[in-house]
Design goal:
The protein is an all-alpha fold and about 180 residues long. It has eight helices and no strands. The relative contact order is 0.11.
Length: about 180
Amino acid sequence: MDIYSTIVAINWRLLLDPMGIINYLLNKLGIINSYLEWFGSYYLALPALILVNIWRGYSFIMVSLLAGLQGIQNNLYEAAEVDGANEWQKIIYITIPQLKPIILSVGVLDTIWTFRLFPLIWLTTGGGPGNSTEMLSTYTYKLAFEQFKFSKASALAVVILVVVTSLSYFYVKQQKQLE
């Protein structure tokens, strides 16, 4: 397991603990009446993991988008303004098309990285409660090392490999088109 995922998982387990700071603040603000078991609730565990995953990748996505925004030439906006475009039209017809390669790259990379969420899921919920946060990686691990069904686990690992390899191929192909 990589150290970054371990640190993120430990920090968020402490923040979202029933006696953690998030519950304390929500309780003091009057949003909740009783402390929530974020990673222990069937209905809250997956949204909590999604929140943690978004937080984990947020900095990379924002820096990438900021770099893309800084790369858009001002004369495009000036020409649009001369043509009478309002702010929304500038966003729709200039900003988004100029950011499209970056949005696609970040989206594909984030999808590939989501397949690598095993440490984060395993250290926060272990795929539970129930199977509410079960992902392909945790299911493969449980098949192999808890149920000793190595053939099924190997087949599933190959499926994961094919999916990630296909996404990686798409990403590399898209990057070559940008050059």
